[in-house]
Inverse folding.
């Protein structure tokens, strides 16, 4: 939290605590400007979003790792059972050899018999006995090696699982802390100050959108692919549902939960988080943007929206807001990616119908914030 934000929160707390105590003189405090407050809020939301994307990515990795750990555990149990059987076979051979009851002792008696020709006729039995012993010992050695290898892999997998679980909890706690900071900050502001923040945000978005559209960087309008149209239809159907940290539908979403589920509904699995979407999906220049493409925001790729066309996106903005249609320049642009680069654009495109009030509400939530308490039920699985 910045120094300005700390001073604001501290001032509010002190004013409440010592309201009944007469003061000799009012202390002189440095009141941050609305612009400074907006910068602080945006920083806190970005930090929460970054932690959220780390949590989401770790959740995916943890599910995969748990599956692998369980598989190795099953394989290790089988290997140990096979090794126990091999130990039993080796013990049986040793007892038979000691007691003179092995096939080999019978063959030696044949060799010493009065009919050596008969003993020679039985030579293949000696070879079979030797082969059986070698096979038993080979199974024992190979089984021991396999069990040791699987035990080491199982320990490593469990360590990896525990590391991921720790990272997941840390990301959850970081996001929760940043959102609590937002709550404290908003609690210290008056309704008029909050309204000023919203107005400043809206004016900043309008100015950025106007400059972007005037620059021509978006190029001409294009049509989506069939899958892109399906993804947009899905996203449009989620408008009005609340943003919830870490959610991926169907009742609520975070930013990348919305985009990943929209494309999943279109029949294409894409990475879960905005950072993975930016890193793994093919990038496209903004001048080639077509509906259905994903627009990535902030230098750390911590926010994502789906392009609707005509300079607008569908997004799950921030805690305290709902899925909505926003100007593409509502947040600082990083770039765009295309989930279906090989898809053939449709000959014509009509944007999906939008519900009334689809563009209403803040592009960044200031009314309330929701800490990631939902993660508690899954973080220690």
């Amino acid at each position: 939290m910045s120094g300005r934000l700390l001073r604001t929160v501290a001032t509010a707390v002190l004013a409440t605590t010592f309201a009944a105590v007469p003061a000799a003189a009012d202390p002189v405090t440095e009141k941050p400007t609305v612009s400074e407050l907006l910068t602080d809020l945006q920083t806190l939301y970005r930090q929460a979003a970054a932690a959220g994307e780390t949590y989401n990515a770790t959740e995916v990795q943890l599910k995969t790792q748990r599956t692998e750990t369980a598989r190795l555990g099953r394989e290790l149990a089988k290997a140990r059972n096979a090794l126990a059987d091999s130990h039993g076979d080796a013990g049986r051979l040793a007892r038979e050899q000691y007691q003179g009851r092995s096939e080999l002792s019978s063959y030696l008696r044949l060799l010493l018999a009065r009919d050596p020709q008969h003993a020679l006729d039985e030579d293949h039995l000696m070879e079979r006995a030797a082969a059986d012993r070698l096979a038993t010992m080979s199974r024992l050695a190979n089984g021991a090696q396999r069990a040791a290898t699987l035990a080491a892999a199982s320990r490593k997998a469990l360590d990896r699982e525990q590391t991921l679980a720790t990272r997941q909890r840390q990301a959850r706690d970081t996001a929760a802390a940043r959102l609590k900071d937002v709550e404290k900050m908003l609690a210290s502001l008056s309704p008029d100050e909050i309204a000023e923040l919203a107005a400043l945000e809206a004016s900043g978005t309008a100015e950025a959108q106007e400059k972007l559209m005037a620059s021509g960087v978006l190029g001409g309008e294009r049509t989506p692919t069939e899958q892109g149209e399906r993804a947009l239809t899905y996203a449009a159907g989620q408008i009005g549902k609340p943003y919830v940290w870490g959610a991926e539908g169907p009742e609520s979403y975070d930013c990348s939960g919305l985009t990943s589920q929209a494309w999943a509904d279109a029949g294409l699995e894409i990475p879960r988080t905005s950072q993975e979407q930016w890193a793994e999906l093919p990038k496209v220049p903004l001048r080639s943007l077509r509906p259905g493409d994903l627009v990535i925001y902030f230098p750390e790729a911590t926010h994502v929206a789906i392009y609707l066309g005509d300079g607008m996106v569908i997004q799950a903005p921030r805690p305290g807001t709902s899925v909505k249609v926003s100007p593409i320049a509502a947040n600082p642009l990083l770039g765009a990616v295309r989930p279906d680069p090989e898809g053939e654009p449709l000959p014509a495109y009509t944007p999906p119908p939008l519900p009334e009030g689809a563009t209403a509400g803040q592009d960044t939530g200031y009314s309330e914030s929701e800490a990631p308490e939902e993660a508690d039920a899954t973080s220690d699985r």
Summary: Residues 34-98 form the longest helix (65 residues). The beta strands are 283-284, 294-297, 303-309, 312-315, 324-327, 333-337. The chain has two domains: 37-179, 217-369. The longest strand covers residues 303-309.
